[in-house]
């Protein structure tokens, strides 16, 4: 598929990625939250008053249903560990092996679980591309660079080298 022909609907991008990753066992291994399904273009009238903000939208809302993970927080200096970062890289490789390119491998989409010293969770696949073949290693290079910068910053206790990864 050429760039001009690629899917732009973020609901389609995200739900397709989560479906593929679930099929390949990444939910069960904790790499991504459990994906429970989705609903497309539903009438928010039946969900009042909770969805009143959608009543006057031009388009009907769609939703994906994901696992709630208590104590989830973004990777940062105070919760960084080599094991967690190794698990992010391993998880991204598994995502790529499943034929999904995240397309936004930034710290804001890299979550850790406070009470679990090892779990690393990738979220937010609304820019993802799903391919029939494994994807290239460009994203892995970004995450490896982030790891190196964050590791250096942890040694000094100051966010410096990894700062730009948090800005985009």
Automatic annotation (TrEMBL):
Annotated InterPro entries: Kinase-like_dom_sf, Prot_kinase_dom
GO molecular function list: ATP binding; protein kinase activity
Sequence ranges assigned to domain Protein kinase in this UniProt record: 1-168
Protein name as catalogued: Protein kinase domain-containing protein
Native organism taxonomy: Eukaryota, Fungi, Dikarya, Ascomycota, Pezizomycotina
């Amino acid at each position: 598929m050429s760039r001009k022909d690629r899917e732009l609907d973020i609901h389609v991008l995200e739900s397709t990625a989560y479906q593929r990753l679930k099929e390949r066992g990444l939910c069960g291994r904790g790499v991504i939250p459990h994906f429970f399904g989705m609903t497309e273009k539903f009438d928010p009238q039946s969900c009042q008053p909770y969805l009143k903000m959608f009543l006057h939208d031009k388009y009907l809302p769609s939703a994906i249903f994901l696992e709630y993970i208590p104590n989830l927080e973004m990777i940062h200096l105070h919760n960084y560990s080599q094991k967690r970062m190794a698990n992010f890289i391993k998880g991204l490789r598994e995502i790529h092996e499943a034929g999904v390119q995240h397309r936004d491998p930034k710290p804001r989409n890299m979550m850790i679980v406070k009470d679990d010293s090892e779990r690393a969770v990738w979220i937010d696949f609304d820019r993802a591309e799903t391919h029939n073949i494994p994807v290239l290693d460009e994203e892995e290079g970004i995450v490896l660079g982030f790891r190196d910068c964050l590791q250096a910053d942890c040694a000094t206790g100051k966010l410096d080298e990894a700062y730009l990864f948090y800005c985009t």
